[in-house]
Amino acid sequence: NSRALLDPRVIDFFKAHALQRKSMFETALNAKQATVPQVLLPIVEEVFCPSLVRVGSVGDGGKWVCNPWAMPRNGVVFSLGSNSDISFESDFQTITDNAANILTVDMNTASKSALDGLAKINAVFVQAMIAEKTERKATPPHYTVQDLMKEINHDHIEILKMDIEGAEFTVLPQFLDTNSVCQIMVEIHNITQTPKLLRAVANAGFLLQKYELNAFWTGVGLCEYSFLHENCLDKYEAVKLASYLKD
To answer: What residue stretches are annotated with the Methyltransferase domain (predicted)?
Structure first.
């Protein structure tokens, strides 16, 4: 029981600070050119997951996932942007005994070793560019996330991992408007645009569960962010602390 593991005073403490964090975040949101300290200083988790683990490469590329063992068997995992690094997919399937149906997407051709590795772990590779508009005749084909879901007959994603080199600012808000997903891991590349995207994700019902500054890009504030939807708290045995990112 996650709530039993959490001293109720911790929730009270997070709630007491939420108003100040929200005020600082609003300042960053309204700034013409938000700085790294403006954006990152108020950021803390909004949800407590006692089984939060970093899945994938120990170095660059690992993602924070809440309780992957709680994911329903045959749950759908989308890994958007891989560049032939399948450490996330391999690690996820290893610790869950191949519980997931994984779709890995990248605009570049995957290496033979990556394709062979994916084939061994119930994962499929698609060469495509994730975009705000579907263009099947483009090279490589362009897909919105929602159209990609339709292509493989899925109406819900358990875990969405996204590293699409800046396209997250258009792709992610568009997807959140009409689709169902429990957890999102996204690398956000532009610090000045980060507050707007965080607000959009929060307004869609997601709670921040972890952020991690990329050590290669500390000066520009490139970070990995991990979110859990409020409707999936019980499923993944997590507890809400206090929200401050949403309107």
So the answer is: 46-200
For residues 20 and 40, give the distance between their C-alpha atoms in angstroms, rounded to a whole number.
14
**Helices (H), ranges, 58-167:** 87-96, 112-119, 145-151
In 214-230, which positions are buried (b, 16+ CB within 10 angstroms) versus exposed (e)?
beeeeeebbbbbbbbbe
Using the structure block, give the residue that is written with the tokens 């403006």. Answer: 38
Task: Convert the pLDDT of each residue in 16-69 to its tens digit.
Answer: 999 999 999 999 999 999 999 999 999 999 999 999 999 999 988 899 999 999
The token pair that represents 63 in the structure block: 């993602």
Instruction: Determine what percent of the chain falls in helix, strand and coil, rounding each to the nearest 5.
Output: 35, 25, 40
What is the spatial distance between Cα 124 and Cα 103, in angstroms, rounded to a whole number?
5
Give the strand pairing for 157-162 and 75-80. Answer: parallel
Token pair listed for 151: 């292509």
Token output for 41: 């200083």
Sheet containing 123-127: give its strands across. 123-127, 100-106, 75-80, 157-162, 181-188, 223-229, 206-213
pTM for the complete prediction?
A: 0.94
Alpha helices in 97-207 (DSSP H): 112-119, 145-151, 168-176, 194-203
Instruction: Return the SS3 of 78.
Output: strand
